[in-house]
């Protein structure tokens, strides 16, 4: 196979992969399929397609899937604001910008760890870095832009505390299980896709 044919095949594979992950990301965010119920809380897996896109397709594919994930989150919170923090997620700086970086950081995490570890450990590491990026940047932007409003919203719901304490509590309760779930799903799915695409 000549170089032009190889490049065309690679482009087509990335296009198919990106389209598939964008569709899955939107479905995960818009439906209960993207939520795994755990004994105490529920963990979202809506960020997993973005992580997988970054690890397999590179930072551009991860960024494109991340934009779709963020747009789906923005639209859902604008049209169906069910969370106490929905007001913050109506801002693209909170709902879209951090999600673009999830796939990018997963890619660099994966290839950085790949220099000294095997493929499975590198995928797990990249997925954990991508998931942490989602948690830290989304909650960080909420703190920067809406600290006082978060305190008022939780106070109205009968829960007191500083914005920092509230967001740290959310990070501990949701961030850790989401990172664990993302690592498990990513290593299984990425290895399967690598076999299919012969990467």
From TrEMBL:
Superkingdom of source: Bacteria
InterPro entries, per the entry: ECF_trnsprt_substrate-spec
Keyword Metal-binding included in the entry's annotation: no
Transmembrane helix listed as a keyword: yes
Keywords: Membrane, Transmembrane, Transmembrane helix
Stretches that traverse the bilayer: 15-36, 48-72, 84-111, 123-146, 166-190
Name recorded for this polypeptide: ECF transporter S component
Organism: Defluviitalea saccharophila
């Amino acid at each position: 196979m000549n170089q032009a044919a190889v490049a065309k095949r690679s482009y087509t594979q990335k296009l198919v992969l990106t389209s598939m992950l964008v569709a899955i990301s939107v479905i995960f965010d818009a439906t209960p399929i993207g939520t795994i119920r755990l004994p105490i809380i529920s963990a979202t897996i809506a960020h997993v397609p973005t992580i997988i896109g970054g690890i397999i397709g590179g930072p551009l594919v991860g960024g494109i899937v991340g934009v779709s994930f963020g747009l789906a989150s923005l639209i859902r919170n604008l049209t169906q604001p069910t969370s106490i923090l929905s007001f913050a997620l109506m801002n693209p700086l909170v709902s879209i910008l951090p999600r673009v970086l999830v796939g990018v950081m997963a890619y660099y995490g994966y290839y950085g760890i790949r220099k000294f570890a095997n493929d499975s450990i590198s995928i797990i590491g990249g997925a954990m870095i991508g998931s942490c990026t989602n948690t830290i940047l989304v909650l960080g932007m909420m703190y920067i832009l809406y600290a006082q409003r978060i305190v008022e919203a939780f106070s109205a719901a009968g829960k007191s505390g500083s914005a920092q304490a509230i967001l740290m509590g959310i990070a501990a309760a949701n961030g850790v299980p989401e990172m664990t779930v993302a690592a498990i799903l990513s290593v299984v799915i990425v290895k399967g896709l690598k076999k299919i695409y012969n990467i």
